[in-house]
Amino acid sequence: MVQAYILWALIGMAGYSFTTLFVKLAVRAGGVSSFMVLVVATVMVAATAVANIWMRGEVAPLVRQFATPSMLWACAAGISLTIAVSSLFRALALGPATVVVPLYGMFIVGGAALGAVFLHEPLTWRNVTGLGAAVVAAYLVSS
Hints:
Blueprint: H1 4-29, H2 34-55, H3 59-64, H4 69-94, H5 97-104, H6 107-118, H7 125-142
C-alpha cells in the first residue's frame, strides 16, 4: 500500500508540472504578465488554504499561536515560498520551460541538504548518489 505522503507528493508534483505549462500558456497568450498570473494563482491558493483551516476548526488556534516559534517559522516559510514562486513565474516568462524547470527543480537537492544539515535527517550514500544524479540530470536536461 502506498503511504499517504507519497500520494500527496505525487499530486503536488503533478500540480507543479501543470502550473509550469499554464504559466507559459498564459504569458504567451499575451495581455498578462507573469506577476498577474502569480496574483491569480496566489489568491486561489490562499482562498483554498483559508477554507481548509476554517473547515478543520483551526482559525482560533491560528490566532492564539501567532507569536509562537511555530508561527514565526511558518512566516519564514511564507517568505521563502514567495521568493521561490515569484522567481519561478518570472523565469518562466523569460525563458524556456525546458531550462527553467530543471534548474528550479534543484530545490530538491537544496531541501534534502538543508534537512540533513539543520534537521539532522539521515543522509545515506544512496541518497547522496541520487542527489548527485539529480544534479547531473538537471544539467543535462537544461543545457
